[in-house]
Each structure stands twice: as C-alpha cells, then as structure tokens.
C-alpha cells in the first residue's frame, strides 16, 4: 500500500514539474478516423446498378435476364434490361456468377425449392422503360 501511494505521489509530481516547464499547455487532438470502407455490393446490387433505368426507345432494345437459381434448377426469375443503357455481356456475367454462387449455397445447405420452372416472359418497351411482358403477350 505504501509503495502504491509513493508511486501516485511521484507521478503527480512529475506532471506538475512537466506542466510548469512548458509555457503553453500542449494541444491534444483526437486521432482522425479513417473513412469507413464502403461495403462491397452484392451481385444483386451490381445487377441493379448495371440495369439502371432500363431506358428504351423501342422493344428491340429490351431483353430479359435470368437471375438467381432454384434448387431444382433454372432461374428464380427474370429482370428486364435495355441494350441502350446496359452492358449485356457484363449483366450475363454477373447473373451467371450470382446463379453459380446460389447453386453452391443451395447444395451446401440442402435447400429445396418448389421446382416450378420460371418461364422467360420476354421484355418490351413501355413508356420508355424496358419491362417484363405479361404472360401470353408478345413484343411489338
């Protein structure tokens, strides 16, 4: 206990001596925090970004993209995109990577699906935007 008290007194004296030796109080600044790293976009977000507004002038610019993967096979669904505003090769590459990753995750987890096959509805231009067609319709 006596040693602890002597140590506290010695430290206090050291601060007093150091403080009186300086004509100005030291400036203490908080460390600058590094900017937070942006989280990497998921493949679905990258696909959304590449599709963007899917702007079109006519139906010939519109395509449907199979996305996701069902455990029984085939895509989970389709997304409409425009060849006017999107890079088709990049979209196919992203969608394929997404399907491959989901297929591997399904196999690892033993996940099952309803095994209903999602049919490609095709895409058309509606009011300047590529959209998926409704079942039983065709592009004009």
Instruction: Report the count of strand segments.
Output: 4
> What global shape is seen?
flat
What is the number of helical segments per DSSP (H or I, 4+ residues)?
A: 3
Oligomeric state as shown: single chain
Mean pLDDT: 80
What's the N-to-C terminus distance? 92 Å
Strand order of the largest sheet: 1-2
Write the H/E string, N to C.
HHEEHEE
Ranges with pLDDT <50 over ≥5 residues? Answer: 1-22
Q: Rg to the nearest angstrom?
A: 31 Å
Main beta sheet strand tally, sense and closure: 2 strands, antiparallel
Structural class: alpha+beta
| Residue share in helix | 25-40%
How much β-strand is present in the residues?
5-15%
Summarize the model shown.
This protein is α+β, with helices and mostly antiparallel strands and 140 residues long.
Q: Any key phrases for this structure?
A:
140 residues, flat, two-stranded antiparallel ribbon, two-stranded antiparallel sheet, alpha+beta, 14% strand
Describe the structure.
- Helix 2 (43-51) runs antiparallel to helix 3.
- With 140 residues, the chain is α+β, with helices and mostly antiparallel strands.
- The strands form 2 sheets. The chain has a two-stranded antiparallel ribbon with strand order 1-2. A two-stranded antiparallel ribbon has the order 3-4.
- It contains 3 helices and 4 strands.
- Helix content is 36%, strand content 14%.
Helix/strand layout:
Elements: H1 2-21, H2 43-51, E1 62-67, E2 77-82, H3 88-109, E3 123-126, E4 129-132
Antiparallel strand pairs: 1-2, 3-4
Helix pairs in contact: 2-3
């Amino acid at each position: 206990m006596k040693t602890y008290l002597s140590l506290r007194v010695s430290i206090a004296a050291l601060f007093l001596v150091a403080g009186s030796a300086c004509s100005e109080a030291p400036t203490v600044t908080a460390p600058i925090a590094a900017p937070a790293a942006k989280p990497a976009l998921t493949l679905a977000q990258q696909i959304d970004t590449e599709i963007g507004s899917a702007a079109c002038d006519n139906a010939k610019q519109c395509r449907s993209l199979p996305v996701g993967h069902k455990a029984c096979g085939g895509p989970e669904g389709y997304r409409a995109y425009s060849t006017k505003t999107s890079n088709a090769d990049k979209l196919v590459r992203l969608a394929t990577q997404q399907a491959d990753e989901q297929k591997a995750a399904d196999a690892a987890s033993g996940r099952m699906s309803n095994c209903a096959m999602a049919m490609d509805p095709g895409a058309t231009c509606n009011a300047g935007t590529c959209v998926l067609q409704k079942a039983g319709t065709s592009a004009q």
